[in-house]
Amino acid sequence: MSLASGPGPGWLLFSFGMGLVSGSKCPNSCLCQAQEVNCTAMHLTEYPPDIPLNTRRLYLNNNRITSLPAMHLGLLSDLVYLDCHNNWIQEVMDYTFIGVFKLIYLDLSSNNLTSISPFSFSVLHNLVQLNLANNPCLLSLDKHTFANTSSLRYLDLRNTGLQTLDHAALHHLVVLQTLYLSGNPWKCNCSFMDLAIYLIVSHLDPPDDENATCVEPMELVGWPITRVGNPLRYMCLTHLDRQDYIFLLLIGFCIFAAGTVAAWLTGMCAVLYQNARRRSSEEEAEDEAGHRVEVAKRLFQNKEKSGQEGFPQLV
Ligand SMILES: *[C@@H]1O[C@H](CO)[C@@H](O)[C@H](O)[C@H]1NC(C)=O
Ligand SMILES: *[C@@H]1O[C@H](CO)[C@@H](O)[C@H](O)[C@H]1NC(C)=O
Ligand SMILES: *[C@@H]1O[C@H](CO)[C@@H](O)[C@H](O)[C@H]1NC(C)=O
Ligand SMILES: *[C@@H]1O[C@H](CO)[C@@H](O)[C@H](O)[C@H]1NC(C)=O
Ligand SMILES: *[C@@H]1O[C@H](CO)[C@@H](O)[C@H](O)[C@H]1NC(C)=O
């Protein structure tokens, strides 16, 4: 039945609306009772239609659903519990959960998640438990991902592809009690230091911390990430490379050379000054001696003169 030949778009819209509003329906392959819809292991390949609008708990686990349509999910404004574990969901978008803002429990574990948009969980202020475990293709999480999920008490990030995690991503999780981080290929380079130190100072104490270990670099392979804070601080803050040593050596040599030259110059100046002083005082002494000689000479000459000429005058 095509749109043109049918009863018209108005009717379609009406029936669609009626279908959505009529809360009594139940998806064919699911079990519905008391605001709970159970579609566990029903071989579903996509999100089932006709889910009652007043549903509070929805089980979609153990199927082959590849995506969660925000349009349909958003109609379930009373939903508090959503279990999607063990499906083929590949990505979560900014608007996927925009309508289910009352969600308390969300399980997305064992899916094919490759990306989670930074604002996917931004309206989930009531979310207490979030499971993202067993998504080996999930390689990164944005630091804003958990910015608004401040009620979160349980966060499971086991067995993903995460190599690193911005410590700022955890800052808003003020009531977090359980954090699982094991089974990830943690790359403990210098960028990892902030998270490692945050894990120490925040006293989060992941229950699986013995199994949350570094796979890189060579020196830290097998180290629990809760204990690499200090080695990293040493390696990244106080550790010096060969270039640094050469640089320091050069600086030291420059200081040494400059010191030597300065000492030499000072010595030279002192000697020159001393010499100059000695010479000038000698000259003065010489001068004085010469002057005395002159005076004596003059006196003598005067005497001679007076002796020669004055005497007869006196006589
Ligand atoms: C959902 O149904 C399956 C069987 O179809 C059952 O094993 C499972 O316990 C049910 N889950 C809940 C939460 O009732
Ligand atoms: C999801 O992962 C499973 C097993 O890891 C794989 O068999 C399946 O093909 C993947 N599906 C998609 C759509 O990538
Ligand atoms: C957090 O929620 C507020 C409003 O509730 C919104 O304006 C803001 O963009 C959200 N931030 C993030 C990082 O999701
Ligand atoms: C550390 O590893 C991460 C993940 O591979 C990378 O994004 C980052 O640039 C690396 N940082 C340094 C300082 O090498
Ligand atoms: C760590 O891994 C080992 C072997 O995989 C497992 O037996 C043990 O229960 C794990 N410990 C924790 C705390 O997860």
UniProtKB/TrEMBL annotation:
GO terms for molecular function: potassium channel activator activity; transmembrane transporter binding; voltage-gated potassium channel activity. Residues 25-57 form the LRRNT domain. GO terms for cellular component: voltage-gated potassium channel complex. Keywords: Cell membrane, Disulfide bond, Ion channel, Ion transport, Leucine-rich repeat, Membrane, Repeat, Signal, Transmembrane, Transmembrane helix, Transport. The chain crosses the membrane at residues 245-273. It holds the Pfam family LRR_8. The keyword Repressor does not apply. One of its GO terms (biological process) is establishment of localization in cell. InterPro entries: KCNMA1_auxiliary (IPR051432), Leu-rich_rpt (IPR001611), Leu-rich_rpt_typical-subtyp (IPR003591), LRR_dom_sf (IPR032675), LRRNT (IPR000372). It is found in: Cell membrane. It is a single-pass membrane protein. Residues 1-23 form the signal peptide. It comes from the Eukaryota. This is Leucine-rich repeat-containing protein 52. The gene is Lrrc52.
